[in-house]
Amino acid sequence: MLNVDNIQFAFNGLRILNGIDLKVGYGELIGVVGPNGSGKTTLLRLISGVVKPCGGRIHIDGEDLSVMSPSRKASYVAIVPQNPRLPMGFSVQELVLMGRNPHLNLLQSEGVRDFDISRQALELTGVAHLADRHVDTLSGGEQQRVVIAMALAQDAPLLLLDEPTSNLDLAHQVAIMDMVRGLQKEKRLAVLVALHDLTLAAQYCSRLLVLADGRGFAEGAPCEVLTVENLWKVYGTEVFVLRHPQGGTPVILPASRSNVPPMTI
C-alpha cells in the first residue's frame, strides 16, 4: 500500500531525514519511534504530502505521491497531527463533516453520502453521543477521538497519527490505542503512528521503525528492536526491558541509578 523508498529531507541546509525506507500494507498498524528530533513528525508530513522530499520516492498503491493532485492525495491519506488546534464554536458533527471537504468541489454542499460517512465515523470512534456538543466543551480524550473521527470521515485507506496519546492520562492513552487498533482491523486501514511511549508502541504495533539522527536505525517486531543495547545506542540511557503480562511485548523502564546494570527479564 505505502512504499517509502530512500526518502530524504533537508530544511535550511540541515539534513532532517537521510535515506528512510518503509513499507506499510493494508490492515497493518506500524509504529515509528525515536528520540526528539529524530524525524518522526517530518516523516509523517512527507507521507501526507504537506512537505516535499529532496530525494527518494513515496508511492501509495503504486502511484507517485509527488505527482498526485491535492484531492488525489486526500483520497488516499488522512493525518491526525500532534496536538491539533480545533476551531472553536463548531459542534462535533460540524467538525467531523469537515473531513469530507476534500471530496467536495468548490462551493459544493455536503450530500447524503457525506452525512452518512461522517455519522459512521462518529459511531466508530465512540463519540456519536457528542454530535451536538461544541468541541470546546470536550475533554482532551474526547477531542482526540473527534479528530480521529474527522480523519476517518475523509475515507482514506492510509491513516497517519502523530503522537495521538500525547497529553492524555493513562486510561485515555489505552482507550485511544484500543480504538485505533480496532479501526485498523475493522476497516483494514494501513495505519502509521508516531509514538514516544515505547511500551505503548510495543503493545499495539506489529512492527516498529526506530529512527535515530534522521536515519532508520532498526526495523522489525517490537521484541527484536526494543533491546537494551539498541535503546542505549539510540537514546543514550540505560533501561530495563521486561515482558508485558498481556502478550509478552517489551515493557521499557528507565534505570533510575547509573550504577544499576541494564537487564532483560
Structural description of this entry:
This protein is an alpha/beta fold and 265 residues long. The chain has nine helices and 13 strands. It has helices at 40-48, 70-76, 92-97, 112-124, 140-153, 170-187, 198-204, 222-225, 228-235, and strands at residues 2-11, 14-24, 29-33, 55-60, 63-64, 77-80, 158-162, 190-194, 207-212, 215-220, 239-243, 250-254, 263-264. Strand 9 (207-212) and strand 10 (215-220) form a beta hairpin. Helix 4 (112-124) packs across helix 5 (140-153). It has a single domain, classed as P-loop containing nucleotide triphosphate hydrolases (Rossmann fold, 3-Layer(aba) Sandwich). Helices cover 32% and strands 27% of the residues. It starts with a strand and ends with a strand. The strands form three sheets. A six-stranded mixed β-sheet has the order 6-7-8-3-9-10, with helices on both faces. A four-stranded antiparallel β-sheet has the order 2-1-4-5, covered by helices on one side. A three-stranded mixed β-sheet has the order 12-11-13.
